[in-house]
Amino acid sequence: MAWCLLFLAGLFECGWAIGLKYTDGFTRPMPTVLTVISMVISIVLLGLAVKTLSIGTAYAVWTGIGTVGTVLLGIWLLGDPVTVARLGCIALIIAGIVGLKLTV
Q1: Which residues, including other chains, have CB under 8 Å from residue 86's CB and lie 6 or more apart?
Q2: Can you give the pLDDT of all 104 residues of the chain as single tens digits?
Q3: Which label site among 30, 44, 50, 93 has the fewest CB atoms less than 10 Å from its CB?
Q4: Looking at residue 101, what is its pLDDT?
Q5: Do the beta carbons of residue 63 and residue 93 sit within 8 Å?
Q6: CA distance 88 to 85
Q7: End-to-end CA distance of the chain
Q8: Where are the alpha helices (DSSP H) in the chain?
Q9: Cα–Cα distance between 5 and 43 in angstroms, integer?
């Protein structure tokens, strides 16, 4: 269950990271509210997950999911560039996340 909570926390981290772009410097009320809600949910879920999981592993996985998800959403939603180097770096992050999961 803790891994499911951690995965959801990572997805909400992607939500608030991408949401920051849509807040336009916190000048747009609805995107700002949704971004803050996503931040709170992400932190709460992370907090629940670390009741069972080690903090180092959980934090690394949380940030990894957030990083990979945000990069992919940036490519898909915001037109960020797709290069072999960026995709290779994403693969390395995913390998690290899987490695941490397997060593717990």
Answers
A1: 71
A2: 999 999 999 999 999 999 999 999 999 999 999 999 999 999 999 999 999 999 988 999 999 999 999 999 999 999 999 999 999 999 999 998 888 888 87
A3: 30
A4: 81
A5: no
A6: 5
A7: 14
A8: 2-23, 29-49, 55-78, 84-102
A9: 11
